[in-house]
Amino acid sequence: MKVLRLDWNLVLEIINMIVLYLLMKKFLIGPVTAIMEKRQETIEQQLSNAEDANKQALDLKEQYEIKLEKADETSKEIVNKGKQEAKKLEEQMLEDAKKQAERIIKEAEETVALERKKAVRDMESEIAGLAMAAAAKILGENGKESDNRDFYEQFLAKAGESNDTNSN
What we know:
Helices cover 93% and strands 0% of the residues. The chain is rod-shaped. It has 2 helices and no strands. Helix 1 (8-141) packs antiparallel against helix 2 (145-167). It has one domain (8-167). The longest helix has 134 residues, at 8-141. By secondary structure, the chain is mostly helical. It has helices at 8-141, 145-167.
């Protein structure tokens, strides 16, 4: 069996290993760890920036949707206002047309009434003229009852004809 011996080679090798470890830790593991930590911080910073950008994008999307809803409501209000104004204009035009029609009808009725009065006056003056002529004829003839009866019938016939022509 071999017994473990401590000699100077072993001690030097252990010292070499410790020095190598310390050198590696100082010049290799330390900088690599620092680089890894920096990289870790950069990645965390980028993730944080990405989350902030995502939140901003979501906020902008929400604001856009709100503006879109407001625009839709505004367009509906404008359309409704237009419809109401068109309806008011239509009602006003109908009312104006009705007033104008009533005015035209009233004027026509007044014209008809005036024409009727004129026709009645004309008939009355004609009848009066015929009555005067008949009276003059009766007084002028002094005569016979049969002549008076004939004259009366002629008078009625002429008065009837005058009345028939004026009523048409």
